[in-house]
């Protein structure tokens, strides 16, 4: 591959990386709050709530994400006679999938908080909402940042799976180019892009963890 070809490929991959970043960001935007809601349902004492939640968690964590991508893309066609746009089908599948993992991380963090924290907040006159959002949640976030960081980095790599339903991003571009030019360089460049993005994610998580060190 010539220097001009490499430069052109780099520009194309840079543009394709924006799709990967969009998938990553939108999955977090929808998956993180959904995961928190699911964690509350998981901790509920009502079987009518915990039963469906447990089933959902089992399905999402017990089946491959690649199958879920196919399901959310093709299911609307068989039920409603139409399909979702490929990009939004990918966002839906990944958000619902990752929400299940986020929910269990949230739950482990919330349940690890000493009961005395709640009792002390009650004595001080805090409401349940104030206790959770002002006292418990900041400490929970600090505790769950390491496992959340692992999930964030996994999410960056899992964006490559959306190519199976025709969403064009870095991995699909790299494999198409590799087969066309007969070189591993496009694949190596794609790996470099993923590595850089995960380095940024790791750095952001470390900085956030440092800022949250106030909460013990």
Automatic annotation (TrEMBL):
The chain crosses the membrane at residues 12-41, 53-75, 87-106, 183-201. Residues 13-197 form the ABC transmembrane type-1 domain. GO terms for biological process: amino acid transport. It is a multi-pass membrane protein. It comes from the Bacteria. GO terms for cellular component: ATP-binding cassette (ABC) transporter complex. InterPro entries: AA_ABC_transptr_permease_3TM (IPR010065), ArtM/GltK/GlnP/TcyL/YhdX-like (IPR043429), MetI-like (IPR000515), MetI-like_sf (IPR035906). Keywords: Amino-acid transport, Cell membrane, Membrane, Transmembrane, Transmembrane helix, Transport. It holds the Pfam family BPD_transp_1. GO terms for molecular function: transmembrane transporter activity. The keyword Chloroplast does not apply. It is found in: Cell membrane. Its main location: membrane. Belongs to the binding-protein-dependent transport system permease family. PANTHER family: L-CYSTINE TRANSPORT SYSTEM PERMEASE PROTEIN TCYL, MEMBRANE COMPONENT OF AMINO ACID ABC TRANSPORTER. This is ABC transporter permease subunit. It comes from Anaerocolumna sedimenticola.
